[in-house]
Amino acid sequence: MTQVFKFGGASIRDAAAIRRLGELLARFPERPLIVVVSAMGKTTNALEALLAAARGSDDADYRERLAALRRDHLATVKALFGERADPVAGRIEALIDELDRRHRAHAHRERPFHYDQTVGIGELLSTTLVAAWLDEIGLASEWRDARDLIVTDDRYQAANVDWTATAERVRDLDSDDGRIRVTQGFTGATAEGASTTLGREGSDYSAAILAHCLGAEGVTIWKDVPGLFNADPRRVDNAVRLERISYDEAIELAWHGAKVIHPKTLAPLRQRAIPLTVRSFQDLAAPGSTIGDDARRDGEVPALMLCEAQTLLEVRPRDLAFMDEARQHDVLGRLVAAGLHAGLIDAGAMRLSLVLDGHPERLEPLVASLATDYGVTRRDDLTLVTVRHGDDALLRALGAGRDCLAERRNADTAQRLFPSAQCPATWHLPD
Ligand code: ASP
Ligand code: MG
């Protein structure tokens, strides 16, 4: 049964990492195996900077950035292939030349279109390298162009998948001839053949799209962390790895601010009950975490999400009027128009409280707009703490010694808002 593996930028950041990737894949002899790869290291950021330079007037800056991309990729080729670098180096050079040509051709087009014709080349570069390296170490591979596989509309930079057309295109991708299929994450193309991208960090989604269309047995995302945790291990000193998580629970955690897998990635997998495992490429013995259909109760382990730099707005109708549904509708409509998400919404008879991410460029116009028709009080520098499956004792302990400025609770989720100044640098989940 088909497996889909996805490797992010960190797992192929340099020659040593690509060697490790080869060693890892050598331990998985089962086929069909489809390998989806992101751009190397921070290449996508570098390509975005190159795009800005191409659209600006500083040609020297553009040339320097293009040269740096060429240099970095060729250095990796040299480190991997040594004397035998020529054929691969030639392909890398050709892709960089193609990138340059595209910048010249598209710099005067709209930015989203220009972006998609150029930034996805990071994945063409990385997969060219990875596929060649697999062949070099005796793991037969076939390089496939994701632009021939994933069909999308022309919403550049956030393209929507045409599922029927994509299913048609990928049909032979899991034909079993013993070769590993290597393809790019993040990219697709319109039916007419214009390159598109699926949004930053879109490679996970690419893996899910292919798995969905092929009815794969599973997807594995190889990361530099040993799995998914019930809290951010950098912020919470006793965070524990979650072994199994249901799709719904993973989506809840992501919604409340956990950096787990994006719901967009999970939806196509959930539809076909394809499990997704997050594993460490540095520690193959570690079992990782699996998101899937799960009979087990989600609530066994409480989870804690922290959102910092939050702003509390309390919006009150003037003249002691009620905050009725019509006014709530008006306030929330302005929130939507401002492009803001409220992590917590709480209504009283004469008040609507909103807890918002501190994006100043979106927040300030919203506050100004609300202040023309409502009384608005505002408080900044707050931390929103969300707990899934916590009991009263845990919530009490988390709030001890802190002013709770807003709260909300339902059967499985509790949220509390505290001044960040009263919050510790490192949290501890009380047991
Ligand atoms: N390379 C792309 C990015 O950095 C896609 C991905 O890594 O998922 O956003
Ligand atoms: Mg990346």
Helix content: 25-40%
Number of helices: 13
Low-confidence residue ranges: none
- Total E-strand runs: 17
CATH architecture of the largest domain: 3-Layer(aba) Sandwich
Rg (C-alpha, Å): 24 Å
**Rough shape?**
globular
State the distance separating the first and last CA atoms.
Answer: 42 Å
Order of helices and strands: EHEHHHHHEEHEEEHEEHHEEEHEEHEHEE
> Describe the biggest sheet?
8 strands, mixed
Strand order of the largest sheet: 3-5-2-1-8-10-11-9
Structure commentary:
The strands form 3 sheets. The chain has an 8-stranded mixed sheet, with helices on both faces. A 6-stranded antiparallel sheet has the order 13-14-12-15-17-16. It contains 13 helices and 17 strands. It is α/β, with parallel strands linked by helices and 431 residues long. Strand 10 and strand 11 (289-291) form a beta hairpin. It folds into 2 domains: 3-223, Carbamate kinase (3-Layer(aba) Sandwich), CATH 3.40.1160.10; 303-422, VC0802-like, CATH 3.30.2130. The radius of gyration is 24 Å and the shape is globular. It has helices at 15-26, 43-55, 59-81, 86-106, 111-118, 121-136, 163-169, 203-214, 247-255, 263-271, 325-338, 360-371, 392-399; strands at 3-7, 33-37, 141-143, 151-152, 180-184, 187-190, 195-197, 218-223, 244-245, 276-280, 289-291, 303-317, 342-348, 351-357, 374-388, 406-409, 413-419. The longest helix has 23 residues, at 59-81. Residues 8-9, 38-39, 44 line the site of magnesium ion (MG). Aspartic acid (ASP) is lined by residues 8-9, 38-39, 44, 122, 185-186, 200-203.
